[in-house]
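Continuing from the previous page of notes. For each protein in this section, the sequence appears first, followed by its structure tokens. Read the first protein now.
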Amino acid sequence: MSYTPGSNLGGRRVDLGALELGAVDDAGVAWHLQVLEGWDGPDQRSEYSARQADHGAWASPVYLSQRPIALEGKIEAPNLSLLDAALEQLLAAVALTDTTLTVYETVPKQATVRRSGTPLCRQLTDRVAAYSIAVTAADPRRYSTVLQSQSTGLPSVTGGLTLPITLPITISTTSTGGSITLSNEGTIATRPAFTLLGPAASPVITATRPDGTIYQLAYSQTLGAGDTLVIDTAAHSVILNGSVSRRPFISAQPSWPEILPGSSLSVRWTASAYDPAALLTGTARSAWM
């Protein structure tokens, strides 16, 4: 059977890196996806301690475990040479390093995965082969494919009093900039990342939930002009200029901020001195269980 390059095979499409499963590639190879297991939910970790002289047990917090995912299907190629090339492409896609797995649901979602089992490939004919691969997402959340990104400079104040004055007087000032809002449309808390572009002396990021809960990230050092500081609240990392850890110089109080499911986070920042070149960029993805 011949297929039109670039067409969809009618089922669920899943991308493993650059490899499109559930579609026909430019060489006319049809990548059928027949099984997708593990995407609906990972296992969880919890403990229960029996209550003394009472019914029931004391329950610990429940945490999601890593998410193992299995994909199975078949490959149909126009000839044996293209089938061999397709199998090599599949083995390379099931990488030992971080790879983005994207599932095209009504709201497309993605996870970062690595190979976690032996890829199984069985040639059925000189044009058809069956495959079974296993990958695992260390972070079990399913993230939106859309990355929110908002930027703002340091807050500035305009207006005020100009001398000499004539009575009666009206003093008015306007504060602009310095704030952004990130949201989470999913079903589990997600963690934002912040990028600071200097110059900025002792910058402080304040994140406020709708219920008034406040989180603060304070950096005790000074960023020079052109310096970039990336604060990843998921990894609890603070990296200066792409390579130097500055984790000891950040204070997260009372903890690293999260964006609760179906909620938002208002973010403001300040520094000990105003500079129009300073910039804060906040990024986040909605997350689902």
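Done with the first. The second protein uses the same format. Note its length before scrolling.
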Amino acid sequence: MHNAPVDSPPRPPALRATARTTLALAGCSLLLLTLVALEWRPLMSLDDGIARTTHRWAVQDPVLTRTCRILTDWVWDPNTMRILVGVVVVWLAWRAAWWTVGWLVATVALGTALQQGTKAAVGRDRPVWPDPVDSAHYAAFPSGHAMTAAMVCGLLVWLLHRQGADRTLWRIALAWALVSVVGVGLTRVWLGVHWFTDVLGGWLLGALVVAVAVAVFERRAPRASAPVARASRRETAP
């Protein structure tokens, strides 16, 4: 079976599904951002209750807290995620998939700019504790760790699927992505450096960036690879 190239032609049905997903994610992201900015009391109470409970557990379990710090500071740190993107960019460049290289780099850069711009616009304070187990800087909403993990993992898993990777490999990558995205969000709440809705906002915005990027890719990916794919199918036909 012929594997689809990275820069393959757009598929209208997939594009329509991506557009619907994008609209849903945009609506949820905007709603959450508005409620956080307005400090909607029920949401603030929920955040406060979760934060107080998890902080008490973090103080009582220093071993798990230390593990969470290692995971969040090294394994799932935004810089680690960007290094992973850099490795994929080198691989794509080796395959001469230059349009995809530019698309991936631009998406990550614009996603990071969106993250920092939203933080500055909302200006939400982080949780403050008399006995903190960790520290962090800058505004709280959205969680940069959660958003970067969702964005990077989503983009790379989608690219792997689009290239026609082996099903077992793709499932392993998907499992790793899910564990990373969920895990980094939980560590940020456990360590008391983010409210739960900061993490939720990061997940939503990261997924939104992926959805928009996929829509752009489907519409704008070069069609020049289509004749190559057809020629390869003819050559492999019996």
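What the second structure shows: The chain has nine helices and no strands. Confidence is low (pLDDT under 50) at residues 224-238. We return to this in next week's lecture.
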